[in-house]
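name: query_chain
kind: protein
chains: 1
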Amino acid sequence: MHNFLQHIHLKDFIDICVVGFLIWGAIAWARRVHAILALVGLLFLWLFYLAAMQLELQLTAWFFQGFFAALVIFLVVVFQDDLRRLFERIAVLGLRRQNAPLDVSRTAVLIRALQELAKRRWGALVVLPRRDPLERHLQGGITLEAEPSEALLISLFDSHSPGHDGAVIWQEDRVTRFAVHLPLSENRQELGAGGTRHAAALGLAERCDAICLIVSEERGTISVASAGKLHTLDRSDSLREAIEAHKPSVRYRATLQTRTILRGALEAFGSLFMALFAWLVLVPGAMEERADLKVPITVENLPVEFDIASISPDSVEIEVMGARRELLMATDQQFTLIIDADLARLGRRTFAVTREHIQHETSLKVISLKQQKVRLSLDSRN
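structure:
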């Protein structure tokens, strides 16, 4: 390990960090779509595949190659929405889309309206988009494009209003649509006692970075769904903090940040370790080195009238060259020196050997032989 680390240069460090970041992103994505165990299973299969390649288990390697090829299609079909969301997030980061600044007065209107709805115990659901596009997650709804007011919001969620069960989209300090249907979450553990509105809010928060504000008509509480999490606000000023910062309340945020930092640090360390391991295997492990092996001798085409009494020497030393990782896996039994003893019928007992007489099924290259001749001692059967 120490010798391998001596080969790390600045570009290698950058290379390792980039791969580590990509692995970290894959772990975060798998966690977001609740596929961590599936990712761990794929990691073990990949390790088995590498082992099969190193041990030259051709049938096993072919099986894994076909499996991984089919797996790519399977993942695209099963996780097409998640993959699309991932690529959208990358595009958003690349384009550096920013949140539109919130108008203080209109934010106050929203806060007062939600608090009034909570007092009346009228169910409500308001969506505040951020950078991610929402359109493909929304169904139905009526375009409004209205200036926000307390009376408007309260009337939209009045139980006599035909669209009171849907969501209101609050975008760029305007009420752009109402009676909108959102995708429902199936995460019952996170939903807890929440109803359909909470499931809809959490469903959207799992698919994009929007923040959803929910008023519960059963409990008269205000909850916030964001980043795939749902929590109930426990202080009167928490709603303003959640709207202005698009983050949870202070107490929840402190707990969440602590957990997020610890989990992120652990995932980052693990990702960097995996990237370093891959670099050690694929980069220094691919550097060519030489090694000596002692291989056995096999005699072929021996005339039937002779038996082998002895072979001198009984094995030969060869020098091979190849990738360091392959040399670590190489064994003497993978090589054999073939002697064609057909000329023994004419009295030949000493045979010259060259690299061409060495047979093996590895990718290593035979450089030289330490012995140039092999002598056979034969006994006649007559």
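note: The chain has three domains: 2-96+258-284, 104-245, 287-380.
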